[in-house]
Amino acid sequence: MPNVIVSPCGTSLLTNQIDDSLRKLINRNSNLKEAEISSEDKAQIDRHYQQRSQELNEEDIEGAKKLSAELNGILTYSKGQISTSDHYYLIATDTYVGGLTATLVTDWIQSHQGNAFLTIIRDLSTKEIETFRLAMSEIVRWCDYELNNQYPQPAWKRIFNLTGGFKSVNGFLQALAMFYADESIYIFESDGQLLTIPKLPIKLSPEDDLANNLDIFRRLAILGHEIPANECQNISGALLEQVDGRASLSEWGQLVWQQFSGGHYQNQLLPPLTSKLKYSEEFVIDIQSLPRDRLAIINARLDDLTRCLESNGEYNPRSLRFHSLEGRLFRGRLSPEPTHECYAWSDKDAKRIYGHFEDNVFIIDKLGLHL
Protein backbone atom coordinates (compact mmCIF):
# COMPACT_ATOMS: atom_id res chain seq x y z
CA MET A 1 0.00 0.00 0.00
CA PRO A 2 1.49 3.39 -0.96
CA ASN A 3 1.70 6.24 1.53
CA VAL A 4 0.76 9.89 1.23
CA ILE A 5 2.88 11.84 3.72
CA VAL A 6 1.84 15.36 4.69
CA SER A 7 4.62 17.48 6.23
CA PRO A 8 4.11 21.04 7.48
CA CYS A 9 7.28 23.05 6.93
CA GLY A 10 8.95 25.38 9.38
CA THR A 11 12.26 27.18 8.92
CA SER A 12 14.66 24.56 10.29
CA LEU A 13 16.33 23.95 6.92
CA LEU A 14 17.37 27.60 6.78
CA THR A 15 18.14 28.09 10.48
CA ASN A 16 20.00 24.89 11.42
CA GLN A 17 23.79 25.07 11.68
CA ILE A 18 24.15 28.84 11.11
CA ASP A 19 25.41 31.72 13.25
CA ASP A 20 23.11 33.58 15.66
CA SER A 21 22.98 36.83 13.71
CA LEU A 22 21.71 35.16 10.52
CA ARG A 23 19.29 33.03 12.51
CA LYS A 24 17.85 36.16 14.16
CA LEU A 25 17.49 37.83 10.75
CA ILE A 26 15.57 34.85 9.33
CA ASN A 27 13.35 34.56 12.41
CA ARG A 28 12.62 38.30 12.26
CA ASN A 29 11.32 37.90 8.71
CA SER A 30 9.72 34.46 9.02
CA ASN A 31 6.13 35.76 9.03
CA LEU A 32 6.54 38.33 6.26
CA LYS A 33 5.68 38.23 2.58
CA GLU A 34 8.36 39.09 0.04
CA ALA A 35 7.21 42.69 -0.42
CA GLU A 36 7.36 43.28 3.34
CA ILE A 37 11.05 42.35 3.68
CA SER A 38 13.69 45.04 3.36
CA SER A 39 15.99 44.80 0.36
CA GLU A 40 19.02 44.31 2.61
CA ASP A 41 17.45 41.45 4.58
CA LYS A 42 16.09 39.82 1.42
CA ALA A 43 19.53 39.88 -0.21
CA GLN A 44 21.02 38.07 2.80
CA ILE A 45 18.20 35.54 2.89
CA ASP A 46 18.53 34.86 -0.84
CA ARG A 47 22.29 34.34 -0.58
CA HIS A 48 21.80 31.95 2.31
CA TYR A 49 19.05 30.12 0.40
CA GLN A 50 21.37 29.51 -2.57
CA GLN A 51 24.17 28.34 -0.27
CA ARG A 52 21.89 26.04 1.71
CA SER A 53 20.48 24.59 -1.50
CA GLN A 54 23.99 23.66 -2.61
CA GLU A 55 24.86 22.26 0.82
CA LEU A 56 21.73 20.13 0.93
CA ASN A 57 22.38 18.68 -2.52
CA GLU A 58 25.89 17.68 -1.43
CA GLU A 59 24.74 15.97 1.78
CA ASP A 60 24.11 12.26 2.18
CA ILE A 61 20.94 10.95 3.84
CA GLU A 62 22.20 11.48 7.40
CA GLY A 63 23.37 14.99 6.57
CA ALA A 64 20.00 15.88 5.06
CA LYS A 65 18.24 14.63 8.20
CA LYS A 66 20.41 16.89 10.38
CA LEU A 67 19.69 19.95 8.26
CA SER A 68 15.90 19.51 7.88
CA ALA A 69 13.40 18.47 10.54
CA GLU A 70 10.89 17.61 7.80
CA LEU A 71 13.33 15.33 5.98
CA ASN A 72 14.35 13.84 9.32
CA GLY A 73 10.81 12.63 9.90
CA ILE A 74 10.27 11.45 6.33
CA LEU A 75 13.58 9.59 6.04
CA THR A 76 13.41 8.06 9.50
CA TYR A 77 9.93 6.74 8.74
CA SER A 78 11.01 5.31 5.37
CA LYS A 79 14.28 3.88 6.72
CA GLY A 80 16.53 6.27 4.85
CA GLN A 81 14.98 6.04 1.39
CA ILE A 82 12.56 8.06 -0.71
CA SER A 83 9.91 5.74 -2.09
CA THR A 84 8.93 6.20 -5.73
CA SER A 85 5.42 4.89 -4.97
CA ASP A 86 4.72 7.32 -2.10
CA HIS A 87 3.49 10.89 -2.47
CA TYR A 88 4.94 13.69 -0.33
CA TYR A 89 3.08 16.95 0.35
CA LEU A 90 5.04 19.85 1.83
CA ILE A 91 2.70 22.36 3.48
CA ALA A 92 4.22 25.84 3.40
CA THR A 93 3.28 29.02 5.19
CA ASP A 94 2.14 31.93 3.03
CA THR A 95 5.41 33.78 3.64
CA TYR A 96 8.62 34.36 1.74
CA VAL A 97 10.87 32.35 4.07
CA GLY A 98 8.25 29.59 4.38
CA GLY A 99 8.06 29.23 0.62
CA LEU A 100 11.85 29.05 0.29
CA THR A 101 12.16 26.37 2.97
CA ALA A 102 9.38 24.19 1.56
CA THR A 103 10.83 24.59 -1.94
CA LEU A 104 14.19 23.25 -0.76
CA VAL A 105 12.57 20.18 0.80
CA THR A 106 10.38 19.59 -2.26
CA ASP A 107 13.30 19.90 -4.67
CA TRP A 108 15.44 17.52 -2.59
CA ILE A 109 12.76 14.81 -2.59
CA GLN A 110 12.21 15.24 -6.33
CA SER A 111 15.96 15.00 -6.95
CA HIS A 112 15.79 11.57 -5.27
CA GLN A 113 13.03 10.44 -7.66
CA GLY A 114 10.23 11.11 -5.17
CA ASN A 115 6.75 12.44 -5.96
CA ALA A 116 6.82 15.69 -3.98
CA PHE A 117 4.27 18.51 -4.14
CA LEU A 118 4.55 21.98 -2.66
CA THR A 119 1.30 23.36 -1.23
CA ILE A 120 1.10 26.93 0.07
CA ILE A 121 -1.88 27.51 2.37
CA ARG A 122 -3.34 30.96 1.81
CA ASP A 123 -2.89 33.34 4.78
CA LEU A 124 -0.95 30.74 6.77
CA SER A 125 1.47 32.42 9.15
CA THR A 126 1.80 32.82 12.90
CA LYS A 127 1.75 36.62 12.76
CA GLU A 128 -1.92 37.30 13.54
CA ILE A 129 -4.56 35.08 15.14
CA GLU A 130 -7.33 36.22 12.74
CA THR A 131 -5.49 35.22 9.57
CA PHE A 132 -4.15 32.10 11.27
CA ARG A 133 -7.69 30.87 11.94
CA LEU A 134 -8.67 31.56 8.34
CA ALA A 135 -5.71 29.45 7.26
CA MET A 136 -6.77 26.60 9.54
CA SER A 137 -10.15 26.56 7.80
CA GLU A 138 -8.31 26.44 4.48
CA ILE A 139 -6.33 23.42 5.70
CA VAL A 140 -9.60 21.64 6.56
CA ARG A 141 -10.87 22.26 3.03
CA TRP A 142 -7.55 21.09 1.58
CA CYS A 143 -7.65 17.87 3.60
CA ASP A 144 -11.21 17.19 2.57
CA TYR A 145 -10.57 17.80 -1.13
CA GLU A 146 -7.02 16.53 -1.58
CA LEU A 147 -6.90 13.60 0.83
CA ASN A 148 -10.47 12.35 0.65
CA ASN A 149 -10.78 12.71 -3.13
CA GLN A 150 -7.25 11.99 -4.36
CA TYR A 151 -6.05 9.50 -1.74
CA PRO A 152 -9.03 7.41 -0.60
CA GLN A 153 -8.65 4.84 2.13
CA PRO A 154 -7.79 1.97 2.21
CA ALA A 155 -5.99 2.27 -1.14
CA TRP A 156 -3.62 4.82 0.42
CA LYS A 157 -2.16 5.11 3.89
CA ARG A 158 -2.26 8.72 5.11
CA ILE A 159 0.53 9.93 7.38
CA PHE A 160 0.97 13.34 9.03
CA ASN A 161 4.68 14.01 9.61
CA LEU A 162 4.71 16.57 12.44
CA THR A 163 8.47 16.56 13.09
CA GLY A 164 8.96 19.98 11.47
CA GLY A 165 6.67 22.96 11.11
CA PHE A 166 5.43 25.48 13.67
CA LYS A 167 3.99 24.36 17.02
CA SER A 168 0.71 26.24 16.53
CA VAL A 169 0.15 24.64 13.10
CA ASN A 170 1.13 21.18 14.30
CA GLY A 171 -1.24 21.34 17.26
CA PHE A 172 -4.13 21.88 14.87
CA LEU A 173 -2.88 19.20 12.46
CA GLN A 174 -2.65 16.68 15.27
CA ALA A 175 -6.35 17.22 15.91
CA LEU A 176 -7.13 16.93 12.18
CA ALA A 177 -5.11 13.72 12.03
CA MET A 178 -7.80 12.02 14.11
CA PHE A 179 -10.15 12.48 11.14
CA TYR A 180 -7.96 12.49 8.04
CA ALA A 181 -4.79 10.48 8.79
CA ASP A 182 -4.04 6.86 9.66
CA GLU A 183 -1.19 7.90 11.92
CA SER A 184 1.00 10.83 12.97
CA ILE A 185 4.76 10.63 13.35
CA TYR A 186 7.33 12.61 15.34
CA ILE A 187 11.02 12.32 16.06
CA PHE A 188 11.51 11.73 19.79
CA GLU A 189 14.07 14.42 20.52
CA SER A 190 16.15 12.76 23.23
CA ASP A 191 17.33 9.83 21.10
CA GLY A 192 16.11 10.50 17.56
CA GLN A 193 13.70 7.55 17.50
CA LEU A 194 10.42 7.68 15.62
CA LEU A 195 7.28 8.16 17.70
CA THR A 196 4.09 6.97 15.96
CA ILE A 197 0.60 7.91 17.13
CA PRO A 198 -2.14 5.82 15.48
CA LYS A 199 -5.54 7.16 14.58
CA LEU A 200 -7.85 7.05 17.59
CA PRO A 201 -11.52 5.97 17.35
CA ILE A 202 -12.83 9.51 17.84
CA LYS A 203 -16.24 10.56 16.53
CA LEU A 204 -17.77 14.02 16.58
CA SER A 205 -21.44 14.32 17.47
CA PRO A 206 -22.66 17.38 15.59
CA GLU A 207 -25.93 15.85 14.44
CA ASP A 208 -28.20 18.31 16.26
CA ASP A 209 -26.19 21.37 15.28
CA LEU A 210 -26.03 20.40 11.61
CA ALA A 211 -29.46 18.81 11.15
CA ASN A 212 -31.35 21.62 12.87
CA ASN A 213 -29.41 24.42 11.17
CA LEU A 214 -28.61 22.96 7.77
CA ASP A 215 -29.63 26.04 5.77
CA ILE A 216 -27.45 28.29 7.95
CA PHE A 217 -24.50 25.94 7.62
CA ARG A 218 -24.96 25.89 3.84
CA ARG A 219 -25.02 29.70 3.65
CA LEU A 220 -21.86 29.90 5.71
CA ALA A 221 -19.98 27.02 4.06
CA ILE A 222 -21.08 27.24 0.41
CA LEU A 223 -21.53 30.97 -0.07
CA GLY A 224 -18.90 31.96 2.49
CA HIS A 225 -21.23 34.66 3.80
CA GLU A 226 -21.12 36.16 7.23
CA ILE A 227 -24.60 36.34 8.72
CA PRO A 228 -26.03 38.05 11.81
CA ALA A 229 -24.88 36.24 14.92
CA ASN A 230 -28.38 36.25 16.36
CA GLU A 231 -29.43 33.85 13.58
CA CYS A 232 -26.91 31.30 14.86
CA GLN A 233 -27.98 31.08 18.49
CA ASN A 234 -28.75 27.35 18.22
CA ILE A 235 -25.26 26.47 16.89
CA SER A 236 -22.48 25.57 19.34
CA GLY A 237 -20.11 28.48 19.88
CA ALA A 238 -16.98 26.47 19.03
CA LEU A 239 -18.27 26.02 15.47
CA LEU A 240 -18.54 29.76 14.83
CA GLU A 241 -16.27 32.77 14.63
CA GLN A 242 -18.11 35.91 15.74
CA VAL A 243 -16.89 39.46 15.15
CA ASP A 244 -18.96 42.64 15.55
CA GLY A 245 -22.25 40.80 15.62
CA ARG A 246 -21.51 38.78 12.47
CA ALA A 247 -20.85 35.03 12.40
CA SER A 248 -18.84 32.77 10.10
CA LEU A 249 -17.75 29.16 10.40
CA SER A 250 -14.70 28.59 12.57
CA GLU A 251 -12.05 26.06 11.61
CA TRP A 252 -13.94 23.48 13.70
CA GLY A 253 -17.20 24.43 12.01
CA GLN A 254 -15.52 23.79 8.67
CA LEU A 255 -14.37 20.39 9.93
CA VAL A 256 -17.89 19.47 11.06
CA TRP A 257 -19.29 20.59 7.70
CA GLN A 258 -16.76 18.63 5.65
CA GLN A 259 -17.15 15.49 7.75
CA PHE A 260 -20.92 15.28 8.13
CA SER A 261 -22.78 17.33 5.51
CA GLY A 262 -22.69 14.50 2.97
CA GLY A 263 -25.27 12.42 4.83
CA HIS A 264 -27.82 15.23 4.77
CA TYR A 265 -27.33 15.73 1.04
CA GLN A 266 -28.69 12.21 0.40
CA ASN A 267 -32.05 12.73 2.12
CA GLN A 268 -33.96 15.25 0.00
CA LEU A 269 -33.65 17.97 -2.61
CA LEU A 270 -32.32 20.97 -0.70
CA PRO A 271 -33.93 24.38 -1.27
CA PRO A 272 -32.11 27.10 -3.24
CA LEU A 273 -29.63 29.17 -1.25
CA THR A 274 -30.03 32.25 -3.42
CA SER A 275 -32.91 34.25 -4.89
CA LYS A 276 -31.12 33.90 -8.25
CA LEU A 277 -32.11 30.21 -8.48
CA LYS A 278 -35.53 28.51 -8.69
CA TYR A 279 -36.72 24.95 -9.39
CA SER A 280 -39.56 24.10 -11.79
CA GLU A 281 -42.17 21.52 -10.82
CA GLU A 282 -40.88 19.17 -13.54
CA PHE A 283 -37.34 19.36 -12.12
CA VAL A 284 -38.61 18.51 -8.63
CA ILE A 285 -40.48 15.52 -10.07
CA ASP A 286 -37.34 14.39 -11.94
CA ILE A 287 -35.40 14.36 -8.66
CA GLN A 288 -37.92 12.34 -6.65
CA SER A 289 -37.00 9.01 -8.25
CA LEU A 290 -33.22 9.36 -7.85
CA PRO A 291 -31.25 6.95 -5.63
CA ARG A 292 -29.56 8.47 -2.59
CA ASP A 293 -26.07 8.66 -4.11
CA ARG A 294 -27.35 10.56 -7.18
CA LEU A 295 -29.41 12.90 -4.99
CA ALA A 296 -26.26 13.79 -3.03
CA ILE A 297 -24.51 14.61 -6.31
CA ILE A 298 -27.40 16.81 -7.45
CA ASN A 299 -27.41 18.78 -4.20
CA ALA A 300 -23.65 19.28 -4.40
CA ARG A 301 -23.93 20.40 -8.03
CA LEU A 302 -26.68 22.85 -7.10
CA ASP A 303 -24.31 24.29 -4.50
CA ASP A 304 -21.77 24.82 -7.30
CA LEU A 305 -24.44 26.40 -9.49
CA THR A 306 -25.41 28.73 -6.65
CA ARG A 307 -21.82 29.92 -6.27
CA CYS A 308 -21.61 30.35 -10.04
CA LEU A 309 -24.73 32.54 -10.15
CA GLU A 310 -23.71 34.55 -7.09
CA SER A 311 -20.27 35.23 -8.59
CA ASN A 312 -21.74 36.16 -12.00
CA GLY A 313 -19.99 33.20 -13.60
CA GLU A 314 -16.52 33.70 -12.09
CA TYR A 315 -16.88 30.42 -10.17
CA ASN A 316 -17.50 27.73 -12.79
CA PRO A 317 -15.48 24.56 -12.11
CA ARG A 318 -15.07 21.78 -14.66
CA SER A 319 -17.39 19.57 -12.59
CA LEU A 320 -20.18 22.11 -13.21
CA ARG A 321 -19.42 23.71 -16.62
CA PHE A 322 -22.42 26.03 -16.69
CA HIS A 323 -22.81 27.35 -20.26
CA SER A 324 -25.34 28.44 -22.89
CA LEU A 325 -26.93 26.02 -25.34
CA GLU A 326 -26.67 26.32 -29.11
CA GLY A 327 -29.88 26.07 -31.14
CA ARG A 328 -33.33 24.71 -30.24
CA LEU A 329 -32.25 21.38 -28.84
CA PHE A 330 -35.58 20.49 -27.24
CA ARG A 331 -37.64 21.27 -30.39
CA GLY A 332 -40.66 22.61 -28.53
CA ARG A 333 -40.84 19.82 -25.96
CA LEU A 334 -40.36 22.37 -23.18
CA SER A 335 -41.75 25.88 -22.98
CA PRO A 336 -39.98 28.13 -22.44
CA GLU A 337 -37.06 26.52 -24.21
CA PRO A 338 -33.97 25.89 -21.98
CA THR A 339 -31.08 28.19 -22.83
CA HIS A 340 -28.35 26.88 -20.50
CA GLU A 341 -27.04 23.62 -19.13
CA CYS A 342 -24.58 22.33 -16.55
CA TYR A 343 -23.31 18.92 -15.54
CA ALA A 344 -25.23 16.79 -13.08
CA TRP A 345 -22.86 13.84 -13.44
CA SER A 346 -20.74 12.44 -16.26
CA ASP A 347 -20.61 8.75 -15.38
CA LYS A 348 -23.31 6.16 -16.02
CA ASP A 349 -26.14 7.91 -17.95
CA ALA A 350 -24.42 11.34 -18.05
CA LYS A 351 -27.28 13.57 -16.90
CA ARG A 352 -27.43 17.35 -17.35
CA ILE A 353 -29.36 20.13 -15.63
CA TYR A 354 -31.23 22.37 -18.10
CA GLY A 355 -32.81 25.76 -17.48
CA HIS A 356 -33.41 29.34 -18.58
CA PHE A 357 -33.19 32.86 -17.21
CA GLU A 358 -36.14 35.07 -16.29
CA ASP A 359 -35.38 38.54 -14.90
CA ASN A 360 -31.88 37.51 -13.80
CA VAL A 361 -33.23 34.39 -12.04
CA PHE A 362 -32.12 31.00 -13.37
CA ILE A 363 -35.04 28.57 -13.41
CA ILE A 364 -34.11 24.91 -13.64
CA ASP A 365 -36.47 23.24 -16.11
CA LYS A 366 -35.36 19.63 -16.19
CA LEU A 367 -32.84 16.95 -15.28
CA GLY A 368 -32.22 15.14 -18.56
CA LEU A 369 -29.81 13.15 -20.66
CA HIS A 370 -26.84 14.79 -22.33
CA LEU A 371 -27.91 15.98 -25.76
From TrEMBL:
It comes from Synechocystis sp. (strain ATCC 27184 / PCC 6803 / Kazusa). The keyword RNA-binding does not apply. CDD domains: Csm6_III-A. InterPro entries: SSO1393-like. Keywords: Plasmid. Pfam families: Cas_APE2256. This is CRISPR system ring nuclease SSO1393-like domain-containing protein. The keyword Cytoplasm does not apply. Residues 65-200 form the CRISPR system ring nuclease SSO1393-like domain.
